């Protein structure tokens, strides 16, 4: 049995029961998941691959797991697509992307190998590889690696050269790859090809100029509105005002694309999410021209899941990106609205003190609150509440901040529990849309001009929602249960094929 067959057999025999898993967020069938990979449309179907180690609930030799969807919400599990079974990827099939071609569905990924030097130390080499398939089965091409470490200009890191993002403009394919320069600073390098097999180095598309962390992982580059956006996930960031926190996170560089120099002329850099669990996002363009982004909903530094839970890692809800007045907005894909059931509406409800509304509870929901201005100082909403647990968002008027707190979510590890977000744009009302799916919350502020994504593994019995205000606040609430099951019950995320 080869490595891919072994991974598939293991997945078949050890698949984790769906009840108790998130309902509408992708999770691994068993074991560990990190970055989204190969997020693409092929023959009219949405494909999502992901960094996958089925054999344990922690990171290990990377495979590509695979699932498909027609609407970004309901996913179908497919066989594992790639296993680290060649000399050039023996240490892992790292992140990458996919594209529909005349030859089939092409996956571009990073093959990692470890070579022993003469002195016995290990040299890591990362190179770009190609596999082509029919949407289910993929074959690595004989010419791999299609971009060798030797094709990089002198001084560029061959050890940190990963996560290719492919796109096509007329007859030319382009590939943006994460890299480090001689000063150990993050950069994105660009290549071009006519056939995906022979690549030519073009340029440094952008670099971090000593800011925004060190290695830039998982680049993505695309036009949006009148601008171009380069998404990067820098490692080793240092906190910067209210915009960036310490550690790994994801940023969008917004600017003009200078096609002569193959260089992004950056105009602004913004954080893509202010929560504790959002990394390595990747986008695709739908057939109707929408730019949709999905990210890994976990942090490299904080593994807070309960020890007995045998799956580890989730994806965010896919989000539509738009650029309005030079501001980047994220909204959950509109397809999610098809799965809304059991509407609960409160209009201009007065909240004063601690308050529990009779129909406001649950752990799988799409909940929008519009909060009018008032004399109050603080307004708090707490989720996943029972006598022991709660996780809350507190809006503080004086500082225009929202503070998240998961201290009492049932966590057994000493991880970051509190984080605040400075609200960017003040309007008359504050609009907060929360997506809850058992162990996560994604908050979209004021139509998605800012988002805040975090996980919490509170036992499922805690499902109350409590509102609290120091004085009178007037709010309107629209709440839906999200149900993937036609009968109105919370349904299964994956159907077996
Ligand atoms: C980002 C990352 C990528 C790499 C992958 C390995 O989270 O470190 O740079 O390809 O994960 O699993």
Helix content range:
under 10%
Radius of gyration in whole Å, from Cα? 23 Å
Could you tell me the strand content as a percent range?
over 45%
Low-confidence stretches: none
Query: What is the strand tally?
Result: 32
What is the molecular shape? globular
Distance between the termini: 22 Å
The distinct bound ligands, ions and cofactors come out as:
beta-D-fructofuranose
Largest sheet properties: 10 strands, antiparallel
Put simply, the count of helices is 1
Class per helix and strand makeup = mainly beta
Output mean pLDDT.
95
Oligomeric state as shown: single chain
Give a description of the structure.
The chain is an all-beta fold. Helices cover 2% and strands 52% of the residues. It has one helix at residues 3-14, and strands spanning 31-42, 45-53, 63-69, 75-82, 93-101, 104-116, 122-133, 138-140, 161-169, 172-180, 186-193, 200-207, 216-224, 227-234, 251-258, 263-271, 279-285, 291-296, 311-312, 319-324, 327-332, 340-355, 364-372, 378-385, 391-396, 401-405, 418-422, 429-437, 440-445, 450-455, 464-482, 494-495. The strands form 6 sheets. Strands 22, 23, 24, 25, 26, 27, 28, 29, 30 and 31 form a 10-stranded antiparallel beta sheet that branches. A hairpin with a 2-residue loop joins strand 9 (161-169) and strand 10.
